[in-house]
Design goal:
Largest sheet: 6 strands, mixed
Order of helices and strands: EEEHEEEEHHHEHEHEEHHEEEEEEEEEEE
Number of strands: 22
Shape: globular
CATH topology of the largest domain: Rossmann fold
Radius of gyration: 25 Å
Strand content: 35-45%
Bound molecules: adenosine-5'-diphosphate, magnesium ion
Number of helices: 8
Mean pLDDT: 92
Number of domains: 2
Distance between the termini: 56 Å
Strand order of the largest sheet: 7-8-9-3-10-11
Helix content: 10-25%
CATH architecture of the largest domain: 3-Layer(aba) Sandwich
Length: 372
């Protein structure tokens, strides 16, 4: 199965770069998500790999073949890129039934009638649309049509699958179910998936690696849990995770034994980096995930805080806290009902508290934080 390599891929639309010098190595069997806000260049990237959009500059290699090179004037058309199927166009043929829509591509590939029938039965069951096989697209809901489109894409067992926001029209419950199915499908097909989404949770839960983009520029390319706990910069940190990470502006000064003294409107404290690092800026941002703020019911313990709002959802509770002049968000894994204005004590747990350079936004280091 092919490896996909993008080298310095740029796409200019008029004067602005939709994708800006993108370098990406997709290993065979990976489940890559291109993640980022609307307009950041995800679809354009996917279309360039597929050959539907011509890069302004750069080189794309699929397997051992260069499929695009601006320097050498190579541009292999989409149908010759050996990239299986494409999932760009959800439009089903309106004059064909569900069955015929899925069968169409397989007939073109000269599959036998019996093989087509058994493959379609398998797919209809997988996507839970058995009862619609004789219906026409106009007789289906948007979500059902989308499932037919997914079935059609999967039908020929493609080696590389491109999926552009395939679950966006489904309701929340079905989306969750389809996520599970897609993940199982990835394992069972052993195909390479290149998946586009703006939904950070979808990217987190599905992919082996996330390529996070902003304004056409890659921000980070790493496994989801690494993006979560080791975000490369403030944008990554803020984009991934819900509720979002707490960001607190602070003044930093070196203190003995490699520690950092921090002063902010929420707390004063000492930060102990996990790895040695050299502090060369005084304006930093402290990043704290909500689950790393522990709450004690007695305010004698830790830093003084006041309950600002409390949102129990059953399994977990999102608590907003007034700490000094700042409002911080904590998530606790159980249902609690703190009354508003109750005085509590908080502390910062673990050693995955992050320090960012405020000016560049780049992550400096992570470690533990003890308040004074
Ligand atoms: N055919 C086009 N002509 C001009 N601008 C385009 C075209 N396609 C995309 N763009 C622009 O390129 C940028 C990236 O678009 P796109 O790749 O579709 O983003 P995403 O899929 O991340 O939402 C956007 O600013 C968009 O407006
Ligand atoms: Mg898009």
């Amino acid at each position: 199965m092919p490896e996909i390599i993008l080298e310095n891929i740029t796409k200019m639309f008029t004067k602005t770069a939709a994708v800006d010098h993108l370098n990406l190595l997709i290993h065979s069997g990976d489940f890559i998500t291109l993640l980022g806000p609307s307009g950041c260049g995800k679809t354009t990237t996917l279309r360039m790999i597929a050959g539907l959009e011509t890069p302004t500059e750069g080189k794309i290699t699929i397997g051992d073949r260069i499929v695009f090179s601006s320097e050498d004037g190579i541009n292999i058309p989409p149908n010759k890129r050996d990239i299986g199927f494409l999932f760009q166009n959800y439009a089903l043929w309106p004059h064909m039934t569900v069955y015929q829509n899925i069968a169409f591509g397989l007939e073109n590939l000269k599959w036998s009638k019996a093989d087509i029938a058994s493959r379609i039965a398998e797919l209809l069951a997988l996507l839970k649309i058995e009862q619609y096989s004789r219906r026409y697209p106009s007789e289906l809901s948007g979500g059902q049509q989308q499932r037919v489109a997914i079935a059609r894409t999967l039908a020929p067992n493609p080696k590389v699958l491109f999926l552009d926001e395939p679950l966006s029209n489904l309701d929340a419950k079905l989306r969750l179910e389809m996520r599970t199915e897609l993940k199982r499908l990835h394992l069972s097909t052993k195909a390479t998936f290149v998946y586009v989404t703006h939904d950070q949770l979808e990217a987190m839960t599905l992919s082996t690696k996330v390529c996070l983009m902003k304004n056409g520029i890659m921000q980070q390319y790493a496994p989801p849990l690494e993006v979560y706990s080791q975000p490369a910069n403030l944008f990554s940190a803020d984009f991934v995770g819900n509720p979002a990470m707490n960001f607190i502006d602070a003044k930093a000064a070196s203190s003995p034994k490699g520690a950092v003294k921090l002063e902010s409107e929420a707390f004063s404290g000492v930060f102990k980096p996990k790895k040695p690092f050299k502090l060369d800026c005084s304006d930093v941002v402290v990043g704290i995930r909500p689950e790393f703020i522990g709450i004690h019911d007695e305010c004698q313990q830790g830093l003084d805080a006041t309950i600002y709002s409390n949102m129990p959802s059953g399994m977990e509770t999102t608590v907003k806290l007034k700490v000094g002049k700042a409002i911080l968000t904590s998530v606790i894994f159980r249902g609690v009902d703190y009354p508003v204005d109750m005085k509590v004590g908080i502390n910062f747990l673990g050693d995955d508290i992050l320090l960012f350079d405020r000016k560049s936004g780049i992550k400096l280091v992570y470690g533990s934080l003890v308040t004074e």
